[in-house]
Design brief:
homodimer, 165 residues, mainly alpha, Arc Repressor Mutant, subunit A, 2 domains, two-stranded antiparallel ribbon, globular, disordered N terminus, DNA-binding
Chain lengths: 165, 165
DNA sequence: AGGTTATAGTTTGATATCAAACTATGTGCC
DNA sequence: GGCACATAGTTTGATATCAAACTATAACCT
């Protein structure tokens, strides 16, 4: 029960060179949600990252593009909240999307501080490919979680994001 | 049902300056495990980060110190696997822990490439404080998840970390 | 109108992370 | 022994992120 991820075993060598495998002891980490949440997220993110790189987009682009497409005219600050990251992290991302012609950005007339973001036609094409790719990823995750627990699992994830102070 | 996290609402201003709140539309992100996993993890991590900073340690130090304490003599590569990160990420972390006297590092005689890591007495004291802090964090998460679902939730997280390709 | 305070976005500086190249050491095979 | 390959750890370069300081604009109050 101590083995958690592939390759986390310890290997020792005895006097005659024979290999002695020892399991890593995780102690309290074994049952702590925070640690296991991090591990699951990082593995899943890495997997998706590899997938999305095949079509030449970083994994972070995906949520950003979807949110702009679904909320035409959204501002960068609104986007950063929806996306759960600081607005300053978004500056280079949006810049890149605009530079590559996937997103367009207009100053609002009413409030000249804020921009309105919209996905271009090219952006929609890219988003379609990214979405297909994300669906494949989701199918893998669904297979691991199992239909029976999926809904409850999602609810709990949302609850954590919303309520952890 | 579209509202997911605090502060993600959109605000528009009408002609007379009245505020019009619109919910953000998450589209497919709403039901995708990958996105929600990321959001939950990031919120939880941020919360723990604030907590652990109060005692002057980054959040990443905690798992690292625990793993060394529970597996005396562990090598850096083994540690990086157990911790789910690249061995190169560990170099500065271990360096810092050694410099501050929390961890000690000895070359192995049998294999002069590898180090053995051990927690010092001072490291144990720090770990005790960190563990208390982590337990408080876990209590909050447990409260959000609820006793009934906690075990299953943990199992699924482990399954994801282990099986996602 | 003019001063104060708030907000949208950018810049800057710090941290964490990975991946690939690199160094030093160890193992296997002839 | 000596060459080819493997492994432990470090270095380097790229990316993503946050937080705080900053700029420009807007809103609010008297």
């Amino acid at each position: 029960m101590a083995r958690m991820t592939n390759g986390s075993g310890r290997v020792r060598r005895g006097k005659k060179g024979e290999t002695i495998a020892e399991a890593i002891r995780f102690g309290p980490l074994e049952t702590w949600v925070g640690f296991n949440l991090r591990m699951a997220q990082e593995h899943a993110f890495q997997a998706f990252s590899r997938r999305s790189q095949e079509i030449g987009e970083g994994p972070g682009r995906f949520a950003t593009l979807t949110l702009i497409a679904r909320n035409p005219g959204i501002s960068q600050t609104e986007l950063s909240h929806a996306n759960g990251r600081d607005k300053s992290s978004l500056t280079p991302v949006v810049e890149d999307l605009v530079r590559r012609g996937l997103v367009e950005r207009k100053r609002m007339r009413a409030d000249r501080r804020t921009y309105r973001l919209n996905v271009t036609a090219a952006g929609k094409q890219t988003l379609t490919m990214l979405t297909r790719c994300a669906r494949r990823h989701e199918r893998v995750l669904d297979g691991i979680i199992g239909q029976r627990d999926r809904k409850r699992f999602l609810q709990i994830l949302k609850k954590i994001a919303a309520e952890v102070e």
